[in-house]
Every structure is written in structure tokens, then in C-alpha cells.
Specification:
heterodimer; A: alpha+beta; Ubiquitin-like (UB roll); DNA polymerase, domain 1; 5 strands; about 15% strand; B: alpha+beta; Aldehyde Oxidoreductase, domain 4; 7-stranded mixed sheet; 6-stranded mixed sheet; about 25% strand; globular
Chain lengths: ~160, ~775
């Protein structure tokens, strides 16, 4: 079977699996990285949201054959290291607002929120209600209002 | 003040163990002065059955004959451990339970470790998580066990110090006394232990001295949740438990006829096993991705299911045929009448049905989030042909429930697949399966007639007719589960449940409510409450209609007819905080509603924007719809153990209510539900959630906590519906309001699950 090499959370990984297997399963079932969650498998619920070379993406919809040694994947487990801290400011804001309920969607929510703040900042502006409305990550516990508050707080500390 | 102390004195136990282990009886914690006084029952002028006995009472009484213990352990490292015989699914009961222990024992909250107990059949009725009953039923026993630990630790320190225990204090995990350096409880744990079980009488802390209970605390698992370390069932590392999925029928509960290509699919990359099981064809492989490939490759001929050929309209007709006649209109009175329809809704949590199972010839082990683990254990044992004692059921942290995890569909299927394969399995339902074949809240109609004369309401009648709700989890034990499956017993049980869970909050003269059920062909269950969101929504809309007919303000009319001051306080609070009656542009309106249940009261005020440009705002693959722009919610649960957690529960309830009123339903067409994705089933998303939200936890009105987990949905859905009526000038009679418009392209039913896209890189942002 073909080997695939790429980087996850700062470490080089090589897996031996068919190239069409989506990255979510490579991360979860082969590498044992369980922060990214399954919620739909069709890039709709966004529970698996992680970062690919610093951009938000959904590993349920990327075949492992599409990534190479130059690609850096960051999951929730590797987020704090991207800022060289114990916790990323977004995670700290999440704790301050006690955002999580069941917690299942939360890794994906946090990774999407970090990407949103970065994108909005790259456009030279601050996060608006309309920006928050674009977050597609579903939270079946309905903790959306606390997510909105936490993003606003983290934005000030990122 | 003798009575006040008497009410706080209880009997607990110290158990035989090398370290300090204390216990109390769950469900029946005897007072130390039992039998000394028997207060006369309050006389009510017009008693409501739920004011005397409600669902919580029934569940608590049901538990009374069982003398079974819950225990608190103090470790030599000073940590405090407790295995909660309930399921944590996001509602925050591990945190509130840790708070009770921290309070009573005198330790920092961070030292208390609350885990979820395995299935314990000896608890009989007392390991069911439902009916928003956890805090209500465990509030006293948990504190008694902790108080016994405090007493024993103080006694041990007193012997050590050579001073009376009354001169010592236990605070912050340290025992100290006059002129003595503090000693950590970890150092006292062995001394405080016992070689035999003994009764210990304890006095619980006074309400006025609470330092933890009633203060806002963050979840004890918050750090694990935000770092991705929190483990759900399929995240657990169980050796050789490989991914497993099931190929399911295109119609509800369809069954396998034959499979044309079992051998071919067994040979697919990564696949280790393929076999027929009772719910379809199970496949096991190296990754879930390869399981999806295998499920899609299977060529199965299916036999009919239990809803063959039926569509929404057929079920609506069945309901119409089953509807009981309403009472005749009283002579010389006016009436308001309406019939409301509530469509099928999915109680799918974000964590789909899933379980790990390791079944061997002589034993089995199951890991899953289960709210009725005793019934699960008994049913799994029966299915596998194993004695109950050979089956171990571990309750894992759950990724949401909303009623779904009262059942154990995933665990039973995992056990069957593991036995069939002779190997451990990590079984998970695909989202499409979870939505189409998973449990639903049943379609129902609610008919309301309010009879009035001038300013006086003479009677209120409501007839609720529903597709049968599976209450087969009973009250948590197989005997009741079996009884609930009997045709006659089930009707009695459902009617009992209905009567006990519904209340009439308004002084509307004579009132009657009846439930009729029909059609057992669907996989149903409760969904963040069984009946109340529908029953209350119908009632509150009719209260608004009555206000219109009487030419009265909807808020003032409610305020005038609410039966007690506690209810009025909640309603008045949201009216004031939400500026009820303020002028709004055309197309926008406020709505206000009230709901009482679980010994709690709640009121909700919303502002809804129904202007065309808002309703039709463009959002990809979504329903935009009317936007709830503001919500003010007031809640009084008697005693709020953790106000921050309570606020979180209300927040979730509000978002559920918005979805029920406006966007979320399942469409039944020709024996199948069409929804197969979160972009088909329109639960509230960021673009639907209120930008402005105020949740007001009212001052405690009782010495005991009521229920909260499901409480807030009914008032929320009702307030949104009432706002819709006022904003549009038309009475909505079918929910959700967008049900008649299908807002997505249905996915195929064969193969049953969609393939994952491959273009994820193109959508990185």
C-alpha cells in the first residue's frame, strides 16, 4: 500500500493506507488523534475543522493522497503550540465564558473561530455580527451566544 | 428552630475500606428524626394534580423501596471521588454534583473528581437520567455522603489533636483548630476509615452558610473539552475495536432480504468483516472511511419496514382519525378553537449513535453514553444469550442527548456485531442513518378550546394526539420496560406520564387534558421533553388569541390569570427587562410566553423580525427565515445549584425552541425520512441564533432544586410562535412554520450513506 508523509501538529507522520481515505479517518483511526470529531462526513457540520497550512479546513473531505510532506496539519491538540503557549487565547476565552456544554463540537468550533479572527484581521477590520453569522459549525447543545462572546474576547488577545 | 435542624439531620454510612468511604441511600435518605412530625397537606382551592405530585415526585417515589448506596471516597492524596449513577451528556450534572460534595465536605471544587458509574442493576429505578430529575433526586443523598465524610475526618483529627471535634473546622480541604497547623484531609483519610459499615447521623450545612452551592461555577471538564482531550465513546482506546458501520434499509426499519455481494465486499481494501445483523449488514474495517466505501458497495435487496409507503399527509390523516372529540361548546359562551400540527423532528445529537463492544464467548463489555444503562445491560445480555452478570456496561461521556440516549440502539447493535464477528467493534452510525433511521419526536396534533364569557374564562380543554412515543426505557428497569411494551400497559403509562408532566398554569376555571396515541411504526422518543413544547406552544398561542378576542394585552392577560406569585414574578421580570410593548416597525413583533414544570417556572420574551428582506436573506444551503433578534428569559428552579450551568441549559433550550418554531423538522415521504444531513435538518445555526440574549436566574424560591435540563424549550418555542402571530397577523397552525417548503435536494436512499467529498482543499479558508 502507498505511503503518505505529511506533518501533524509539528511532527512528521507517515501512514500506509489507500490514497482515497479521507484525512479525518487517518487522523482518528490510524494516528489516534481524536480531537477532530465526526459529525457528518460531508463537510457540512464542521465538527472536524482543523487547520491546513494555517487555514481552516475539514479533513473529512480531503483524501490523504492530496497532502504531501510540505503540508502542515494542525488539530485542536496542536493549537496552543502555534502561539507557543499552554493554551491559545481562543481556548482561554472559551474557558472564561464556560462555552462548552457536551463539548463534542468544541474543537471544531475553536479551530473555526481562530481562522475567522485571522481572516477578518487580514482584511484590516474587526469581527462583526455578520461575520459570526457565517460560522457554519453546528452546536446541537445551542451554546452559540457564548461562542459569539468568546470570539469577541479572544479577538482582543490574539 | 428545632424543626429546621430536624430537616437537616440525616443518616448516612461509613463503609469498610482501607481509606475513608462514606455513603448514603439514593432515593431515600432517612432523616435522623424520621416520624417526629408529619405536616398536614396543604389545602388547595382548585388542586392541579401536578401541584401535589409531579413527574419528579413519581420518579423519586419509584426509587423509594430500593436501599442502595452512593459513596464518596477520600483518597490518601486528599482527592475526593464520586461515581455518579447518571449520564453526563452536556447538561452539567458532573459539575453540579462536584459542587454539592465540595460544599458539604469543605474541599476546593478542583479536588472533587466525579466519574460516571457503570450500570448498577441493584439501583433498579435509580440509574435513569431523564425527566430533568438528576439534581432533584440526588441533592440530599450526595450531600449526606459528603457530610458523613466531613464528620469522620473531623473526628479523626479530634482524636489526633486531643481536642473535641466541635472545636475543629474543615475548610479548603484542611482540618484546623485553635493553635493547630492545618492537616490535609488526605493525611486523615486512613484514620477516618472504618473496618466495618456503620451508621452515622449527620447534620447538613445551613443554607445561609453555603459558599459553593448557588455560586456560578465553570464546568469541571471545560479544559478537557477545549483541548480536545475529552473522550467520547468512539474516542476510547479499546484494543482491536475496529471501526464498524451498518448498511441500512432505504425505508424506516426495512430489513435485509438478501445480499448479492458479501464476498466481494469482504475483499475490499481495509475491510475485515461483513455480516448480516438484525438491523442491516454490518461492516468492520481499518477506518470508517473504508466502512463507508463498503456500505456503499453492498448490493442488498430489502424487505418492507414499519412505515412502508407512508408520507406526512398519511400520518396526519391517522392522527385526525385518532383524535378524541372535544367537549361540546357550552351554551351562551364564546369559544376560541384551534388545531395545531407538530411535525416529526429528529432528536439526533451531534455525537451519533455509537458504542464500543467487546463480546466474548462467556462475557461482554460495552462502552457507550447511556441514560438507562441498567435496561441496556439487561437487553444486551438477553440478546447475546449471556447472564446479566457477564455483561459489563460502562457509561461514557455523551456528546449531547436531547432524549436520544435514553435508548441504546447503538450499544445493542454493537454487541450484536461484535458477537457475530467474534471481534471487538467500534460501531458508529453515519449521520444519514442517525437522521433517517434514528429516533424522532413523534408527529402530533394539539387541539385547544377555551370557553369564556366577558372577562371570565370558564374552561380550558386540550386534546393531544400523537404518533406513539416509545417510552420503552420505562423508568430505567426491565420490569417497567416490559410493562411499557404491553399494549394496554403502554397506554396507561403514556397517559400517566402525560398527566404528570403537564400542568395548567392559568386559572381558567375547569380544565381537562387528554392524550391519545396511534401508530407504533416509528422509532420515536422524547426530544428535550416529551410533550411540553407542543402542548404549551398550542396553549400559549390560544392565550394570545383569547387576549385578542377580549381586547386585552397578551402580557396583562397572562399576568391576571397566572395562578401564583412565583409564576407572576417570572413573567413580570421578562416583561420589564424586555421592555414589553415597545413600538416596533411593521414586520417585527414581540412575543411572550410562560411555562411551569419540574417544580420550576420560566418565562420568555422574544423579538422576531419577519420582514421579507430578513426572511429571504441569502445563506448557502440553509434556511434563513424570520430572525429572532432578542430573547429575554427568566427562570426560577427553586434553588439554582450552579447558576452558570443553569444559564447554559436555558441557552440551549432557547435555541431548541427557535428551531422547533421556525426551521427544524423531518419530512416523511414514501416510508423514508428525507433528511440525511445537518444541511437538510435545520437545527438553529449561528445565523438563526439571537444576537441579543439575556437570561435571568431569579432569586431562589425554595430549599430544593427543581429540574432544568428540558425546562426552557416550551416557553421559548411558544414565545417565538406568539411573536410570529403578532408580526404577521396570522395564526401559525403547523410547526415548524417552514415545513411545507422543502428547502433542500434529498440525498438518495440507496446507497444509504453519501460518499465524503474530495475537494476539501478547495474550500480551505
Amino acid at each position: 500500500m502507498p505511503e503518505h508523509t505529511f506533518r501533524v501538529n509539528g511532527e512528521q507522520m507517515t501512514v500506509d493506507v489507500a490514497p482515497d481515505v479521507r484525512l479525518l479517518w487517518v487522523l482518528r483511526d490510524i494516528l489516534g488523534i481524536t480531537g477532530p470529531k465526526y459529525g457528518c462526513g460531508i463537510n457540512v457540520c464542521k465538527a472536524c475543522t482543523s487547520h491546513l497550512n494555517g487555514q481552516a479546513f475539514n479533513p473529512c473531505s480531503v483524501p490523504v493522497g492530496d497532502v504531501g510532506p510540505e503540508d502542515e496539519i494542525t488539530t485542536i491538540e496542536g493549537l496552543p503550540a502555534t502561539v507557543g503557549r499552554e493554551l491559545h487565547p481562543m481556548q482561554e476565552a472559551w474557558l472564561d465564558h464556560d462555552v462548552a456544554q457536551c463539548g463534542y463540537c468544541q474543537p471544531g468550533q475553536i479551530m473555526a473561530a481562530v481562522a475567522l479572527v485571522r481572516r477578518v484581521r487580514s482584511e484590516g477590520r474587526a469581527v462583526t455580527d455578520a461575520d459570526l453569522d457565517t460560522l457554519r459549525n453546528i452546536c446541537r447543545c445551542g451554546t452559540y451566544p457564548r461562542i459569539r462572546k468568546a470570539v469577541a474576547e479572544a479577538e482582543a488577545h490574539m | 428552630m428545632h424543626d429546621a435542624i430536624g430537616r437537616r439531620r440525616f443518616l448516612g454510612y461509613v463503609l469498610a475500606a482501607p481509606t475513608l468511604v462514606t455513603a448514603a441511600e439514593l432515593g431515600r435518605t432517612p432523616t435522623a428524626s424520621a416520624g417526629q412530625h408529619s405536616p398536614a397537606p396543604a389545602q388547595l382551592p382548585s388542586p392541579e394534580i401536578t401541584e401535589i405530585v409531579d413527574l419528579n415526585d413519581m420518579m423519586t417515589v419509584a426509587a423509594a423501596p430500593t436501599a442502595n448506596l452512593i459513596s464518596v471516597e477520600v483518597g490518601p492524596d486528599g482527592s475526593v471521588s464520586f461515581a455518579l449513577p447518571r449520564a453526563e451528556v452536556g447538561q452539567g450534572i458532573t459539575t453540579s454534583t462536584a459542587m454539592l460534595i465540595a460544599e458539604e465536605l469543605g474541599v476546593p471544587l478542583e479536588r472533587v473528581r466525579v466519574t460516571l458509574a457503570d450500570a448498577r442493576p441493584e439501583l433498579v429505578f435509580n440509574q435513569l437520567t431523564g425527566g430533568s430529575n438528576t439534581t432533584f433526586s440526588t441533592y440530599t443523598p450526595v450531600r449526606v455522603a459528603a457530610a458523613v465524610a466531613r464528620t469522620r475526618l473531623l473526628d479523626a483529627a479530634a482524636a489526633d489533636f486531643g481536642v473535641p471535634a466541635t472545636r475543629l473546622t474543615l475548610d479548603g480541604g484542611t482540618v484546623s483548630g485553635p493553635g493547630r497547623r492545618g492537616v490535609d484531609i488526605g493525611k486523615l483519610a486512613a484514620k477516618a476509615s472504618s473496618v466495618r459499615a456503620e451508621n452515622v447521623a449527620v447534620e447538613l450545612r445551613k443554607r445561609e452558610s453555603f459558599k459553593v452551592i448557588g455560586t456560578p461555577r465553570s464546568r469541571i471538564d471545560a479544559l478537557e473539552a477545549v483541548t480536545g482531550k475529552k473522550k467520547f465513546a468512539v474516542d476510547l482506546d479499546v484494543p482491536n475495536a475496529l471501526p464498524t458501520m451498518v448498511c441500512r434499509a432505504p425505508t424506516v426499519n426495512g430489513v435485509v432480504g438478501s445480499v448479492a455481494n458479501l464476498g466481494e465486499v469482504r475483499g475490499m481494501p481495509g475491510i475485515t468483516d461483513v455480516a448480516r445483523i438484525s438491523t442491516g449488514v454490518a461492516v468492520r474495517g481499518e477506518t470508517f472511511g473504508q466502512c463507508i466505501d463498503a456500505v456503499r458497495a453492498l448490493r442488498v435487496s430489502w424487505r418492507p419496514g414499519t412505515a412502508e409507503g407512508k408520507s406526512d399527509d398519511d400520518v396526519r390523516e391517522e392522527l385526525r382519525a385518532a383524535e378524541l372529540p372535544l367537549v361540546r361548546k357550552p351554551p351562551l359562551t364564546d369559544t376560541v378553537d384551534e388545531t395545531f400540527t407538530f411535525h416529526f423532528r429528529s432528536n439526533s445529537a451531534l455525537e451519533p449513535n455509537c458504542a464500543i463492544a467487546d463480546v466474548r464467548a462467556d462475557r461482554a463489555e460495552i462502552w457507550s453514553s447511556l441514560k438507562s444503562p441498567i435496561v441496556a445491560k439487561q437487553t444486551v445480555a438477553a440478546r447475546l444469550g449471556l447472564p446479566q452478570r457477564a455483561v459489563t456496561v460502562h457509561v461514557t461521556e455523551g456528546g449531547g442527548s436531547f432524549g436520544r440516549k435514553l435508548f441504546f440502539d447503538g450499544a445493542l447493535e454493537a454487541a450484536e456485531a461484535s458477537q457475530r464477528f467474534g471481534k471487538p467493534v467500534r460501531l458508529m452510525w453515519h449521520r444519514a442513518d442517525d437522521s433517517r433511521q434514528g429516533r424522532t419526536h413523534p408527529m402530533a396534533t394539539s387541539r385547544v378550546r377555551i370557553s369564556y364569557k366577558g372577562d371570565t374564562v370558564l374552561r380550558y380543554d386540550q386534546r393531544h394526539t400523537s404518533v406513539s412515543t416509545d417510552l420503552g426505557h420505562g423508568l430505567g428497569e426491565i420490569i417497567t420496560a416490559t410493562a411499557a411494551q404491553l399494549p394496554v400497559g403502554d397506554i396507561g403509562f403514556a397517559e400517566t406520564f402525560f398527566q404528570l408532566s403537564q400542568t395548567m398554569s392559568y386559572d381558567f376555571g375547569f380544565n381537562s387534558r387528554l392524550l391519545t396515541e396511534t401508530d407504533k411504526g416509528f422509532n420515536t422518543g422524547s426530544m428535550r421533553n416529551v410533550y411540553s413544547p407542543d402542548v404549551t406552544c398550542a396553549r400559549e398561542l390560544m392565550v394570545d388569541e383569547l387576549a385578542t378576542r377580549m381586547d386585552r394585552d397578551p402580557y396583562e392577560l397572562r399576568r391576571a390569570f397566572l395562578r401564583d406569585d412565583r409564576s407572576r414574578r417570572a413573567l413580570e421580570k421578562v416583561a420589564r427587562a424586555g421592555d414589553w410593548g415597545r413600538q416596533m416597525p411593521d414586520g417585527l413583533a414581540q412575543g411572550i410566553a410562560f411555562h411551569a414544570e419540574y417544580k420550576a417556572v420560566s418565562a420568555c420574551l422574544v423579538e422576531l423580525d419577519c420582514r421579507r428582506e430578513t426572511v429571504e436573506r441569502p445563506i448557502r444551503n440553509a434556511v434563513a427565515g424570520p430572525r429572532v433578534t432578542k430573547v429575554v428569559f427568566a427562570v426560577d428552579v427553586g434553588l439554582a445549584v450552579n447558576p452558570r450551568g443553569l444559564e447554559a441549559q436555558m441557552m440551549g433550550c432557547i435555541n431548541d425552541g427557535i428551531a422547533l418554531a421556525l426551521t427544524s423538522s423531518l419530512h416523511l415521504r414514501d416510508g423514508s425520512f428525507l433528511e440525511a444531513s445537518w444541511d437538510n435538518y435545520f437545527y438553529t445555526r449561528q445565523w438563526n441564533t439571537p444576537p441579543e440574549l439575556q437570561i435571568i436566574v431569579l432569586p431562589d424560591s425554595s430549599d430544593e432544586p427543581g429540574g432544568a435540563g428540558e425546562l426552557g424549550v416550551a416557553a421559548s418555542v411558544s414565545a417565538v410562535a406568539c411573536a410570529y402571530r403578532r408580526a404577521t397577523g396570522t395564526m401559525p397552525t403547523s410547526f415548524p412554520i417552514n415545513h411545507d417548503t422543502l428547502s433542500f435536494e434529498p440525498k438518495p436512499t440507496v446507497p444509504p450513506v453519501p460518499q465524503s467529498p474530495t475537494d476539501g482543499r478547495d474550500h480551505a479558508w
